[in-house]
Amino acid sequence: MSRDLKFFEALREAQDQCMAADDGVYLMGLGVPDPTGIFGTTKGLQDKYGAARVMDMPLAENAMTGIAIGSALTGMRPVMTHQRVDFALTAMEQIVNQAAKWRYMFDGKHKIPLVIRMIIGRGWGQGPQHSQSLQALFAHIPGLNVVMPTTAHDAKGLLISAIESDDPVVMLEHRWLYGISDSVPEDMYRVPLGKAHVMREGDDVTLVGLSYMSLENLRAAELLAERGVSAEVIDLRSLRPLDEDTILMSVRKTGRVVVCDTANKMYGASAEIVALVCEKAFDALKAQPERVALPEHPAPTSPALSAGYYPRAGDIAGRVLSQMGRDVDDALFSVPEGQNHDQPDPTFTGPF
Amino acid sequence: MDAALKKDLYRSMLNIRIVEERIAELYPEQEMRCPVHLCIGQEAAEAGSAMALRSDDYAVSGHRSHGHYLAKGGSLKSMMAEIYGKATGCAGGKGGSMHLVDLEAGFLGSAPIVGSTIPIGVGAAFSAKMRGEDRVMMVYLGDGATETGVFYESLNFATLMKLAVVFVCENNLYSVYSPMDVRQPAGRSIADLARAHGIESHSADGNDVEAVYALSRDAVDTARRGAGPVFLELATYRWREHCGPNFDNHIGYRSEDEYELWKRKDPVRLYAEQLIMNYGVRQSDLDTIASEVRAAMDEAVAFAKGSPFPDTGTASRNVYAEGIA
User: Fold this and answer.
1) How sure is the predictor about A351, in pLDDT bands with cuts at 50, 70 and 90?
2) pLDDT at A334
């Protein structure tokens, strides 16, 4: 049985089902048991599973990551949550040097079944330190898995796979996805790590995206369809491991690729995907690959400064049309009435 | 303290001494192709503390970990093979001297990023508490680690949760070449830092193996009965250079006089003299222990040298559970 659930509800259900299935699963993070429950994703779970398994923590991200690691290598399955990615930077030492290495450097004698959820902020003045999209930092590290769900269905299925994995998984959740809903099965299903999802089939261009940018890609595909261009939309879902086959198969079909990332361009995921295509499907390309990503400066706070910061569907569609040598019309860039650039929809109001 | 325990303490210290001196002697052959941080001079702190643990208790350590690993009961052959980079090493040649592990002995691992294994040790103690086990975790650290942020974060959580952790800080006065007085304010003791967190904390002569053992035994008992963590600061001294087989008193960061002073407090020699003079142990008994320890080390070195190198194909293994490249 399936029903519509919001992204945040799907995350809560995944954790609920994993905790019911395995006594070793526990949740920790600043605010995990608080009345708002990490934007609803952990709400009510402390009542159900107790304070020992659904716990708040001191403001000590680095040690708490090490503590999660120490518990993981002695039989527990911790799920740690950071309300913004930016805070996890204080734990990079434990994540990169320890969590990612203990299996390898002790030649398989240890496993680290650790999930670290990190939320990417955007809009309403989140600014330089509450809206970074740092997937490339984590995806660069062998030993980590990095997943970025886009739909509620994948949020639940990927989080269950992450919790059941015997290796560390960094799960990056975009705040603007929390309110979207789609059909989510009630049972405890898994979306495998390392498998992309073709969200929409098409023949003329491959739009590769992740997280919130996959939604912009779907909107761009609509705009392109109105202009007679058939776009295939691939939602990566995982950055490491990376589903090379799905990307390459699509690009071999369409001959064009535009990669859209929620992050900066330089050294980012978009660079990796374009490099992959150039190395392994160069002969199939009819046009140079394009990237749509953030400008090379931090996210500004004022709405006046942030208005142009995040690329939208029209930017993506315009890039495709240019790539095809077609005219780019102004209508692509009109923002629908009642929408603001710093809110995903009018019901989503700050502060958040 | 019965005679058997005294001999065990002596044997454990002498084992560390003989292993480390042999490594120093063989290192110039350049067959051990990884950094080694020898702990000669610090044996009493290591042997005395680990002797208080059960075999199913845990320990973690940092870069200078040979002594902790051996005192906890880690396999000497596996350690030597690991230092020689061999397939039979405790980490299959992936880790070397700075990444020792022996799960059967409860030695969960060591890592050289100073301070980093402190929270991991605390986490294993947290896990034991959640799982209802009565294991104690001994977290080995040095004076330098008490300057890291993660040390304070870990003390806070260990005491918040009353975890069964015994922190054993060997204060050997130097972080590489940097003396205490450029790193920590004069007159402030490391033991006080732990005490300020509400943790029971003691300072002791780290070269007196019986004193270290007695303190550690009480600390382990306190931790095991759920009364919370205990911190021990043990004053000691590393005889050789920070990293490598040589003496370095001539290069200018510490004095020959200081070294000689500490050498007069040689924990192994002093304890041998004490056993003979005060407890009627015969020199021949100690000689027997020495020859047994030497024979085991000879065997371990031969095992390590005779073992094959790992296949190059194993370099990409064990990154992930199912060998995802």
Assistant:
1) low
2) 81
Residue that is written with structure tokens 């080995």 in the block: B140
| C-beta atoms of A105 and B118 within 8 A | no
Considering the domain delimited by A2-185, tell me its CATH architecture: 3-Layer(aba) Sandwich (3.40)
Tens of pLDDT along B152-180? 999 999 999 999 999 999 999 999 999 99
Q: Which residue from B90, B94, B108 is facing A104, i.e. has the nearest CB? A: B94
Please give the interface size between A and B, counted as residue pairs whose CB atoms are below 8 Å apart: 142
The answer to whether A130 is a known catalytic residue is: yes
Q: Which CATH superfamily is domain B3-316 in?
A: Thiamin diphosphate (ThDP)-binding fold, Pyr/PP domains (3.40.50.970)
Element (H, E) at B289: helix B283-306
DSSP string, B250-269: TSSSS-HHHHHHHHTT-HHH
The predicted structure's pLDDT at residue B325:
44
Among the listed residues A9, A13, A61, A232, the single catalytic one is: A61
Average pLDDT over residues A300-313: 93
Return the closest-CA partner of residue B164 out of B191, B134, B201, B199.
B134
Measured in angstroms, the CA of B127 and the nearest CA of chain A are apart by 5
The pLDDT of residue A118: 98
Q: Please, what is the angle between helix B267-279 and helix B283-306, to 10°?
A: 150
**Annotation says A61 is catalytic:** yes
